[in-house]
Design goal:
homodimer; mainly alpha; Arc Repressor Mutant, subunit A; Tetracycline Repressor, domain 2; 2 domains; 10 helices; 0% strand; DNA-binding
DNA sequence: GTCTATACGGGGATAGAC
DNA sequence: GTCTATCCCCGTATAGAC
């Protein structure tokens, strides 16, 4: 396994992504320079361009990776039971997943406008796919007569916004832990959609 | 009413604020230059500094103005009836106010991190004051036995996030108008808090 | 109040040596 | 794969004339 001098490709790539995520979340994409990212990793600027063609691609890969993680994690966590149990699973999953990745979530919501039109569209499709998972649960529950929902599309967007909003105020070590928060949200969601 | 050459102070100030609001909302605070704002208004850069000490103050005045408008408008719209009517009024007011000012709302949520620590704290207090208006309604309704709410603080934050979320997907000319949207949200909110 | 000109620093990205 | 050096452009803010 001979290695050329100074080569650390297996670990440098992830370290660049981690530094970019932290810095973008803290200061915003536009406010962070490639020089800052390089310094954070312990590199000179030029070396970054061995790992990303440009700054935009770095942002896109963070957002895309986050959305793919989200989809994969839900597919793994989703039960194949009835609508009510699936809705509860979705509520608890969404809150837990988002609270566990505050930086990725922050970037995913705040930096969309810094994507090129093409990249923006790609992330938009991934987000829509995820929302469809929730809407299908609501449609199934309504078809079975368990839910009373006038407009499943609207309710989907309302619930997603409510659940994701947790990330704007939640702090580790606060009054309520993630499970207690999820309990409260689940009870509100259940009442809001119940027949 | 003699006026010095090129003086347009009465209208230039508001035009600068309007241009800054539009550009900040579209491209983000950090991505917009003072040169762009000046060009949009039809001035040279230097002239902007007759109206604002720096770019930060320009952002802060937009955010502060938005929050003060919000508070003033709610005080004027709030009925002095029972909790249920006040909650309905709040839901409808919040949606209508936010949908009428998409740019100001966008900036108010996305550009908080570009404020200095001191200015951030000031906006945080204004936001908290507004949230208190809703929480008081929830507390009153619970005291009267009309609402079933486990945690009024949590419910306040959940409802605000849900209602504000409308601005992320609403488009003029879409399937539902502002009133139809408000009708749906009010019915969800009512079910979620009812005893 | 507005203009022109400028100071001064920093931005993204690339070239070529090692 | 990384470094140093550099290109070229743009950022905020100020000075001083009109």
């Amino acid at each position: 396994m001979a290695r050329t001098q100074g080569s650390h490709s297996e670990i440098t790539g992830p370290r660049i992504h981690a530094a970019a995520q932290r810095l973008f979340a803290r200061h915003g994409f536009a406010a962070v320079s490639m020089r800052q990212i390089a310094a954070d990793v312990g590199l000179q600027v030029g070396a970054l361009y061995n790992y990303t063609p440009d700054k935009q691609a770095l942002l896109f890969s963070l957002l895309e990776g986050h959305m793919l993680d989200l989809m994969t994690a839900w597919e793994a966590a989703a039960p194949s039971s009835g609508p009510l149990a699936r809705l509860e699973a979705f509520v608890r999953f969404h809150i837990a997943f988002h609270l566990a990745r505050p930086e990725a979530v922050f970037i995913a919501y705040m930096e969309l406008r810094n994507l090129t039109e093409e990249n923006f569209a790609k992330i938009g499709r991934l987000r829509h796919d995820y929302e469809q998972r929730l809407e299908q649960i609501l449609r199934d529950g309504r078809a079975e007569g368990r839910f009373d929902i006038a407009d499943t599309k609207l309710t989907t967007l309302a619930l997603i916004a409510m659940l994701t909003g947790v990330t704007t105020w939640y702090r580790d070590g606060g009054r309520l832990g993630p499970e207690a928060v999820a309990d409260h949200y689940w009870s509100m969601v259940l009442k809001a959609v119940s027949a």
